[in-house]
Amino acid sequence: MPNRSSKRPRDVNQLAKLVTDLATGQAEPEKPDEGKDPAAVALGRKGGLKGGKARAEKLSASKRSAIAKRAAAARWRRPNR
Length: 81
What we know:
Elements: H1 12-24, H2 38-58, H3 61-77
């Protein structure tokens, strides 16, 4: 799937020029976090780091087991890659 956040040109010639400019140091690579509020990024990361662990502690053992069995069954249904 293409990375939709990058603003690279679609034209082949313009893209080739951008790649050569990046390789030679004539252009700066774009930073993906430039337009984001640092406080919001930190808050989102903080919640993401503790989310799975907090959810696992909240669930009962039987419910966790049922979720794990469903996940394993879904993995086995997929074809090998």
